[in-house]
Specification:
The protein has 350 residues and is α/β, with parallel strands linked by helices. Helices cover 40% and strands 21% of the residues. The chain is built from eleven helices and 15 strands. The strands form three sheets. Strands 3-4-5-6-7-8-9-10 form an eight-stranded parallel beta barrel, surrounded by six helices. Helix 1 (36-48) packs across helix 2. The longest helix has 18 residues, at 145-162. Bound molecules: iron/sulfur cluster (SF4).
């Protein structure tokens, strides 16, 4: 059981972040924010896949105005993502967003930050201080990148606290996994606010998911992290949600949908079409919500053991396979029936 860092609780719309609550899964829309219809459609898809809060880029005033309409119909809380221009943060707050993320690397004027904080304070809306390694101020004196990031965030925290504002969330992201881990470890000890964690610009889905799993998994195992985002180069942000939940499920921090155990196969596997079978089972399981464990195994070496330990399992053999349910052998099936017979048992208990 992982012992979570005890952080302050903040409220982003109807989602609680921090405290002893769930680690919240977040993504970001990839649409042009000014295209309200397309952005709402993507938010709905994200919400369906389990996304709990969504960040939206606000590159100009037209985008910040669009947030008013997006907010009215969005099924999950909206976070405005602001760079360079503090007036966009103020307009987004006025248009009803649930949180604003601003980047202290490119909004450096304390008067501009003060104006954002005042507007957030009037509305009791939380702010995220979002530090990125790639957009730090150039004049920092710290000797390493992780320290530069954590000190940059701490300076902003002190500024917000000096205004008696504590609805704060912090994120420190780098594309380098070790820097991300070290920066977050450093700041987690120095302030009480919830942390949004992620490895930024992690890459294409395969490598990006692995790099995110290493970075986020390490931090989460240490109890650090109240919300996560897996940042992937993909047209479909729902892939980020899938990866995020896999990370949380593997650490037993969240339950969502079935877990598939499938063997890698080797020279002992005599089942034809085993990869197609495993892929089809995975695709069908992804549509389900019940947190059951399903095993698809290639032979009798580990097959019966894993299949018996799962809620439903199939141990394949030559031309035949054995289906187990809740530890009991249910039936023997012929190879052409593997998929239908397995899924019939899965559907019966999910
Ligand atoms: S279960 Fe059998 S086929 Fe699968 S990897 Fe193990 S030994 Fe190989």
């Amino acid at each position: 059981m992982i012992k979570r860092r005890s952080s302050r609780l903040i409220q982003v719309g109807n989602v609680s972040i921090g405290g002893a609550g769930n680690v919240i899964v977040q993504s970001m829309t990839k649409t042009d924010t000014r295209d309200i219809k397309a952005t709402l459609y993507q938010i709905a898809q994200l919400a369906d896949s389990g996304c709990e809060t969504v960040r939206i880029a606000v590159p100009d005033m037209e985008a910040s105005q669009a947030l008013a309409n997006i907010k009215k119909k969005a099924p999950i809380p909206i976070i405005a993502d602001i760079h360079f221009d503090h007036r966009l943060a103020i307009a987004s707050l006025e248009n009803g967003v649930d949180q604003v993320r601003f980047n202290p690397g490119n909004i450096q004027n304390p008067e501009h930050v003060t104006a954002i904080v005042q507007t957030a304070k009037e509305r009791s809306i939380p702010l995220r201080i979002g530090v990125n390694a790639g957009s730090l101020a150039h004049d920092r004196n710290e000797t390493n990148l992780a320290s530069k990031m954590s000190e940059a965030a701490l300076e902003q925290i002190r500024l917000l606290e000096s205004m008696d504002f504590d609805l704060i969330e912090v994120s420190l992201k780098a594309s380098d996994v070790i820097t991300t881990i070290e920066a977050n470890k450093a700041i987690a000890e120095k302030m009480p606010y919830p942390l949004h964690i992620g490895v930024t610009e992690a890459g294409l889905p395969k490598a990006g998911s692995i790099r995110s799993a290493v970075g986020l998994g390490t931090l989460l195992y240490l109890g650090i992290g109240d919300t996560i985002r897996v940042s992937l180069t993909t047209a479909d942000p729902c892939e980020e949600i899938l990866a995020g939940y896999e990370i949380l499920k593997s650490l037993e921090l969240r339950e969502r949908g079935p877990r598939l155990i499938s063997c890698p196969t080797c020279g002992r596997c005599e089942a034809h079409g085993f990869y197609d079978l495993a892929n089809t089972v995975e695709a069908q399981l992804q549509k389900m919500e019940s947190p059951i464990t399903v095993a698809v195994m290639g032979c009798v070496v580990n097959g019966p053991g894993e299949a018996r330990d799962a809620d439903v399992g199939l141990a394949c053999g030559k031309g035949k396979g054995v289906i187990f349910k809740k530890g009991e052998k249910v039936r023997t099936v012929e190879e052409p029936e593997f998929l239908n017979a397995l899924m019939a048992e899965v559907n019966a208990i999910s």
